[in-house]
Amino acid sequence: MATVTLDQVNKVYENGFHAIHDLDLDIQDKEFLVLVGPSGCGKSTALRMIAGLETISSGEMRIGDKVVNDVEPKDRDIAMVFQNYALYPHMSVYDNIGFALKLAKVPKEEIDKRVRQASKILELDANLDRKPGQLSGGQRQRVAMGRAIVRQPAAFLMDEPLSNLDAKLRVQMRAEIAQLQRDLAVTTVYVTHDQIEAMTMGDRVAVLKAGYLQQVDSPQRLYDHPDNVFVAAFIGSPSMNLYEATFETTDSGGVVQLGSQTLELGPEAFEDRSALRGYAGRKVIVGIRPEDFEDASLVDRDTTGKILSSDVTLIEALGSELMVHFNVDARTVDSGDPDAVEEQENAANAVGRFNPRSRVKMRDNAEIAVATENMHFFDSESHLAIWD
Ligand code: ATP
């Protein structure tokens, strides 16, 4: 059991590309930490440095109390699970799971005990004689997990281990892996580009962008209290709606000018966010989560001053909710996530998650209530969140 610590770690590849900048991470004993970010942000590089498969250009890496900068991968007491599982096709499940132990010259009886234990946990007992080619994707994934488990390492490192599975199996396996990690209580670093995977599996989630750590927090804290526009947009699906706006204080709170429309804020807008007063009369970026938009005719509370009037361009009925797309005549903000920009190109610039009882229709001009007490605010220059 061990902590994993990265202290001001940098990675500059041989061609001069600076992939990781001054990365600080304190991963606790038994913790499940997820590294998440868009393609190319440096997640795999960071994980491979922990594994010892990539050198560290500067900074310090520790596993437990031991500095491992120059320690060979095999001597780091970690087990890695890769995206492609890297199973040996000609070997049985039993031999695949026990292979690393055999190499390490662990006695046969001990190998047998550990392989049987692991296969029981992973429900592979009935398949021990099969070859990987005779297994389903999920079973192959479990064999890869089994290989890691039998080594009883100080830490598991997992690089997108579910990306080859179909959507349904991915959901099932992410629950299984999270449960397994809790049962085994082994420190785990897990890389994914999928923010839902990150949110549902991690005790804490570290968000990376272009080699820089943006924020590391519990999933709920990331969602409720993002430190900047990038994290705000990256975490949550559909994404937070982000607009350029101007802010003004009033006797009762404040107002936000959003294009041609205004939204009123109560005094609660300044709770946890006292710095917002300093933005009176200035440009800000406002963020509204899809669930903070609602068909105004379904809202019981007083919505005076908290309504946007907008043309509905698309409705996606999902049964439990309606995804209502509409246009707000304010400029949207590029969060810096390349995937998100693509997604938005042909769409309206706002998405709301409405109650399915809503009767709004496509091409209607709808009255949309905004839960302004839940609005997020960011500095328009630095993109940092405005809190206390
Ligand atoms: P993905 O989800 O696409 O795997 P990632 O976040 O894991 O992305 P990395 O594989 O860590 O990203 O790569 C980070 C950056 O470093 C990328 O811009 C990549 O092109 C660059 N990079 C990776 N390996 C090398 C290398 N050997 N030499 C130079 N640059 C590299």
Question: Can you describe what's shown?
Answer:
The structure is a single chain. 24% of the residues lie in helices and 31% in strands. With 388 residues, it is α+β, with helices and mostly antiparallel strands. The protein folds into 2 domains: 4-233, P-loop containing nucleotide triphosphate hydrolases (Rossmann fold, 3-Layer(aba) Sandwich), CATH 3.40.50; 238-379, no CATH class. It has a 6-stranded mixed β-sheet with strand order 6-7-8-3-9-10, with helices on both faces. The protein has a 5-stranded antiparallel β-sheet with strand order 13-12-11-14-20. The protein has a 5-stranded antiparallel β-sheet with strand order 15-19-16-17-18, with no helix packed on it. It is elongated. The structure holds adenosine-5'-triphosphate. Residues 13, 15, 17, 19, 37, 39-45, 193 line the site of adenosine-5'-triphosphate.
A few lines on this structure:
The chain is α+β, with helices and mostly antiparallel strands and 388 residues long.
Shape: elongated
CATH architectural designation of the largest domain: 3-Layer(aba) Sandwich
The main sheet orders its strands as 6-7-8-3-9-10
Let me know the average pLDDT: 93
The largest sheet, given as strand count, sense and whether it forms a barrel, is: 6 strands, mixed
The beta-strand count equals: 20
What level of helicity do the residues show?
A: 10-25%
Overall CATH class of the largest domain: Alpha Beta
Q: In oligomeric terms, what are we looking at? A: single chain
- CATH fold field value of the largest domain: Rossmann fold
Determine the N-to-C terminus distance: 38 Å
Bound molecules: adenosine-5'-triphosphate
Task: Provide the number of structural domains.
Answer: 2
Radius of gyration: 25 Å
Query: How much beta, percentage-wise?
Result: 25-35%
